[in-house]
Write a structure and sequence with these properties.
Blueprint (H helix, E strand, L loop, with lengths): L59 E7 L18 H8 L2 E3 L2 E2 L5 H10 L28 H7 L3 E7 L17 E5 L19 E2 L2 E2 L6 H14 L6 E6 L13 H12 L14 H24 L6 E7 L21 H4 L3 E4 L8 E3 L3 E2 H12 L15 H5 L9 E5 L2 E6 L2 E5 L5 E5 L15 H16 L9
Parallel strand pairs: 1-8, 1-9, 2-11, 3-12, 4-5, 4-8
Antiparallel strand pairs: 2-10, 5-6, 6-7, 9-10, 13-14, 14-15, 15-16
Helix pairs in contact: 2-8, 4-6
Length: 475
């Protein structure tokens, strides 16, 4: 029996979570990632701990997404050259998940899975990998994390990258967020705010907002201002940085910025991809800047007096790109190999969860939607059933972690994880089977040694796939 199969012991949850809310509680499991468990971290012999029993209001929720941040790009996940003291502190004071996954291998499908709590293939917009034009988006009629929390009495805001559709039909303010400040597209130049099509892409609500400073600075200021406000109700803030997504421009790189802007204005449609730029060192600068920015927002949260009652989640929208450090995983962004979908994930809630803990329980993006809805006392819409499983009982009530399959599908690839086993079919069309607990790098194919297990996992993947929308044909 692996550690994440064990039932966890902890105190019963004694707080009032709000009308219609279930009582809630926290995780267990040993670390499989480098570095391994240290003093105070959970192991099979030292299970996870819920904080001492106390009454707690429904939590504020601060969900921070990095963009294309690789699984081992944080020093707390083993990076040998990137220093991330603020995120490491978040890990020490909360829970570090070693086997957490994004909902897909690229930007917008994962965001669909977070906002809806469902597989990207449930919706037409989620089939775009990622969204690149104005033809599709997150339909305003579809319930979202924000609309459901808003219905339960939360204030809601999204600051940063949306990437779930463009105006005039799609916008955060049409999908449940009271406030939006950020960019609609998948990438933008950090100073000029020019997007992939050369359009200006910084908005407040649905109106363009001019600010030509470095984008990460602007988002950090906006988020800090939001948490420092006087709030008369609990709040959800989705803070979606574009860092460290290309182009590879750090704060202060105005000359590099000007060159990319010149190319964009000259009609170079690939300028933002920055294929001729960047370096491991530049990437390090960008990740460390992201770390400082998260630290600034968490500092504002502490000054506001809301730190204890705010649940903070930090993750990435998919695996890292070409300068990312993913060791020992194979693959990167766009791939369903581990490096494309396993992401750093940290959780902190001082009122309810003790720090210094590590979990190897497999979880993925839609699980957080289900979890946050339960913790906030919000009910999913039965017409749009969730694909994620709530972790609230595991996190706070000493229950076993949910047992279910994690499913992924992108064009040309498929994957399903069940416990420690992963079924994978790549572009070559060959079915493979990996035992991740002993082979996270996915090099030892067990398909021929375990034909029955392979067949069972393939059949499970195909049953789920049959209930999803088909990909549109490519002409």
């Amino acid at each position: 029996m692996t550690s994440h199969d064990q039932k966890l012991s902890r105190r019963a949850f004694g707080g009032v979570v709000g009308a219609g809310a279930a009582a809630v509680g926290l995780p267990a499991g040993p670390a499989l990632a480098a570095p391994g468990p240290g003093p105070g971290q959970a192991t099979a012999e030292r299970p996870f701990r819920a904080a001492a029993e106390r009454r707690s209001r429904r939590p504020n929720i601060l969900f921070i997404l990095g963009d294309d941040l690789g699984w081992a790009d944080l020093s707390s996940y083993g990076s040998p050259h990137i220093r991330t003291p603020h995120l490491d502190r978040l890990a020490r004071r909360g829970v570090r998940f070693t086997d957490a996954y994004s909902g897909s291998a690229t930007c917008s499908p994962t965001r669909f899975s977070l906002y809806t709590g469902r597989f990207p293939g449930r919706t037409k917009g989620g089939l775009a990998e990622p969204i690149a034009d104005r033809s599709v988006g997150l339909e305003p009629t579809h319930p979202t994390l924000a609309s459901l929390l808003k219905g339960a009495g939360y204030a809601t805001a999204l600051i940063g990258k949306w990437h779930c559709g463009y105006l005039p039909d799609y916008s955060p303010t049409r999908s449940g967020w009271d406030e939006f400040f950020g960019n609609f597209g998948g990438a933008l130049e950090y100073y000029s705010k020019l997007g992939l099509g050369g359009e200006y892409d910084l908005y407040e609500g649905d109106a363009p907002y001019r600010d030509l400073r470095y984008y990460t600075r602007i988002l950090t200021e906006r988020a800090s201002d939001y948490v420092l406000r006087e709030h008369d109700k609990p709040w959800l803030l989705n803070l979606n940085f574009t860092t460290p997504h290309w182009p590879w421009i750090a704060d202060g790189d105005e000359e590099q910025s000007a060159e990319i802007v010149r190319r964009i204005k000259a009609g170079d449609r690939g300028a933002l991809w920055h294929q001729d730029g960047g370096s491991v060192e530049k990437y390090r600068e960008m990740v460390e800047d992201l770390d400082r920015s998260v630290g600034a927002v968490l500092g504002a949260l502490k000054r506001s007096g809301q730190e204890k009652d705010t649940l903070v989640l930090f993750a990435s929208d998919n695996g890292g790109e070409r300068f990312s450090y993913n060791w020992p995983l194979s693959g990167n962004k766009s791939s369903l190999k581990e490096g494309g979908i396993r992401v750093p994930t940290l959780l902190r809630w001082p009122a309810r969860i003790d720090g210094g803990q590590v979990s190897d329980v497999p979880v993925f993006t839609p699980d957080w939607t289900a979890t946050l809805l339960e913790l906030a006392g919000a009910r999913p819409d039965p017409a749009y059933p969730l694909d994620g499983a709530s972790l609230a009982g595991y996190l706070l009530r000493g229950e076993r972690a949910p047992r279910r399959d994690l499913f992924w599908r992108v064009r040309g690839e498929r994957a399903l994880r069940r416990g420690e086993w992963k079924y994978y079919r790549g572009p070559g069309g060959r079915d493979q089977l990996f035992r991740l607990t002993e082979d996270a790098r996915e090099q030892a194919d067990k398909a021929s040694a375990e034909p029955g297990r392979l067949a069972a996992l393939r059949a499970a993947w195909e049953r789920t796939d049959a209930g999803l929308l088909p990909y549109p044909s490519v002409s």
